[in-house]
Amino acid sequence: MEIIPFHRPFIGKEEEEAVLRVLRSGWLTTGKETLAFEEEFRDFLLRENGKTIPAPPHHNLFCLAVNSATSGLHLALEALGTGPEDAVLLPSYTFTATAEIVRYLGAEAIFVDIAPDSYNMDPEELEKAVLRLRKTKDGEKAAGKPKAIIAVHIGGVPCNMPAINSIAQRYGLAVVEDSAHAFPARIIEDNRDKQILQANLAGMCSDIGVFSFYATKTITTGEGGMVVTGREDMVRRIEVMRSHGIDRSVWNRYTDTAASWYYEVVAPGFKYNLPDLLAAVGRVQLRRALELLTQRQIIAERYDRAFKNEGALIIPPPGGARHLYAIRLKEPERRDAFIESLRSQGIGTSVHFIPLHLMPYYRDRYSLKPEDLPQSYQRFRETVSLPIWPGMTETQIDRVIETVLRAFN
Q: How far apart are CA 280 and CA 285, in angstroms?
């Protein structure tokens, strides 16, 4: 019996040749390949971002490659000046990286529930959480002053960014987009009289967007990420902090003939740079990004047609980057047995996500119960993610469909 894994990266001869080119160049760490990847990623975003009236949010766009999206999120909050007196609002329904970077900086993570029939943060619950933080009474344990919002585009389906940005503007908060799942996903918005259409890409609708190139993501470098911002005041800080707090890059120090050995440490930074070996793979994957998106869309459409009339489950919302295909079981108590049934027949699955307010660290630190964020808890109990990766054959797709339907009948 063939095993159909939950995910398999789409890597070909071009990626192999790119790695060999770098190996033979004699320069393996951050250098000209990474610089080229940053520039090409920027060009892609500007080219694929919709024509908007008024102008796009970033007149100047900067792309900074890092060794993971976790690193990028950490750098983003650090550049915003986040510290121990602050609170950052984020969904519980996300991977732990989104919250742990808040704790790296000594700030408090304030969990917000997701919207009904969605996997993304509920703007109404977000505003309630902001107001609760602002109304902390004397004598109560301080939860921190609200500093920033992290909006997570789960599964590549964009959040309601207009509503989130509106809340942020009202209360003077920064917004970071965790776009780990969302490359490339469009956020489309019409105004009331339908005369203004905006189609900005996820990750370009806030102060800072962070993308992931982890092995399972929509394009991959194995490990890696990209920080995207139009705020020039933050770019220099991120550039310095991603490389030990040194004021000159390694590439500059080794290729500049003038005083190449001299540098200054201006801050206690981090080791978050992306090496050329990985950037070279990313450049090839970037050229395939729209092709890979089309392949995921085709698989999702096949699943949609097959499952839309199956009364025991709910199919995911349309659109976005189609990073995940997460179905919801109407009888949550059957979820674990359903997963085991698929596993026994060679079909890999996953669960996205176990909410963070259920995890021992956050549960105990903030004295949280499952029912404190009821939508997140319910979505976790009923959700299973099915295989959706470029390169799946017709036979493999058919087997997934048949196995899922057979499990319900």
A: 9
pLDDT digits (tens, 9 = 90+) for 218-272: 999 999 999 999 999 999 999 999 999 998 876 665 666 666 778 899 999 999 9
> For the range 196-199, what are the long-range contacts, defined as Cβ-Cβ under 8 Å and sequence gap of 24 or more?
196/53, 196/54, 197/50, 197/52, 197/53, 198/50, 198/52, 198/53, 199/49, 199/50, 199/51, 199/52
| Count of helix runs (H) and strand runs (E) in the chain | 14, 12
Measured distance CA(289)–CA(196) in Å, rounded: 28
- Report the candidate in 243, 234, 241, 235 with the shortest Cα–Cα distance to residue 273: 243
- The catalytic site residues sit at 217
Beta strands in 81-179 (DSSP E): 86-91, 108-112, 145-152, 174-178
* Long-range contact set of residues 361-364: C-beta below 8 Å, sequence gap at least 24: 362/92, 362/99, 362/109, 362/111
Neighbouring-strand partners of residue 146: 87
H or E element at residue 186? strand 186-190
Q: What are the pLDDT digits (tens) for 132-155?
A: 998 865 545 557 899 999 999 999
394 class by beta-carbon count within 10 Å (0-12 exposed, 13-18 middle, 19+ buried): exposed
